[in-house]
Design goal:
Elements lengths: L3 E3 L4 E6 L3 E4 L21 E3 L9 E2 L11 E12 L3 H10 L23 E5 L21 H9 L3 E3 L9 H15 L5 E2 L1 E2 L2 H5 L2 E5 L2 E9 L14 E2 L5 H14 L2 E7 L10 H13 L3 E5 L7 E5 L5 E5 L4 E3 L9 E12 L5 E14 L8 E4 L5 H5 L8 H11 L10 H5 L3
Parallel strand pairs: 2-5, 6-7, 6-18, 7-8, 8-9, 12-14, 14-15, 15-17
Antiparallel strand pairs: 1-4, 2-3, 6-19, 10-13, 11-12, 16-17, 19-20, 20-21
Amino acid sequence: MKKIFSGLTVLSLVICTVCGCTPIEKTAATENTTETAPPLTDDHIINKSAEEELFHIVLEDDPEPELPPEYSATILCAGDNLIHTPIYRNANIAAGGNGYDFSPAYKNLGTLISDADLAILNQETIISDDYEPDTYPSFCTPTEMARDMIDLGFDAFSISNNHVLDKGEKGLISTLNFWRSTYPYNPVYGAYLNEDDMNHIRTLEVNGIKFAFLGYTEHTNGRSLPSDSECVVVYMSQEDLIEQQVKKAAEIADCVIVSVHFGIEVSNIVTDEQRTFSKKLADWGADIIVGTQPHTIQTMQYIDAADGREAFVFYCLGNFISAMDNPLSMAEILGRITVTKDNRTGKISLSDANAVPLVCYFSRSYSDIAPYPLDKYSRELAASHAIPGATYDLMIQLFRENIPEGFIADGYHDLIYGQQ
């Protein structure tokens, strides 16, 4: 894993003229553990390596460290990790029948995920070993998925989507307890154990920039929590609560990332509701809005916020992996953007927003489901796709029509526009 979390506490040294130097406190850094996680706070720090977990001795005559003029971090976000039966069946085969190994399904991505300073995934299915693996319409995915996604390079996980209550309240509690106990320093957001848990907004500091994470969903497939449940899922309709949360996040962090599950399924058309809600989020303080739900790609744009900031929205990234049977669902993107913080003003700016085009491929035997970057995909491979309508030309057309030309990632422009 390229990033290790640390709850590092500064060690201050008190100089006593009688007794000499006496350390007051030292808190060692803590790596991921299967033990019960500590209570969440509003401050989680992401560091580059375990070797950096050193405490700092502060003496009275220490000069203030000089900050660089600016900090910068590259952000990557991926769409719905939607784990149908053949995907976890293939993972069981890859593990030799003993557990699950999902990593082969993502091998074509290389270092696209881990190259980012901060990578975010919409984990569409709950992750729990308290239930048998399950597929549509009530998904449940083995816990090895979390391990493999973190090994792939993901750092933060939105679980705000229409399948978060597929196993009811107990399933939600199970998945939240799994994440909390096994990977306590990887933010998981969008559904919570209780109101207090919800009010602890997840944050990470990456390259000197503090990020906050919030997640909202349009619906949960008609399922709801029991009236006496302490658990919380925040719906788009709760605009007063959402406004409060986004404004609070903007106060405690440099950059606010909001994941939203909204829009019409298997449609490339952005709805008025998606545009209106995204503008509200930007006006309230969101900087990057990550859209999912339609299971196909939609456009993206900068948004002028009410306070003069410039926010950015990916209206829909499509899936990350799935075994859906609609040709439109085979087109996917990885959204990328750079966040820069001016250390003189404390303000951030966004730049280099782009989309990496992916195609989800699987053969007619469903034995090799995998996302491919477009530069690793071919007409020959497309000709053997299990979905007859998922032609190479359709994929090119979908990318051309839904990714504005200025937002196509380097190396992919000619593949898409050279086909005309």
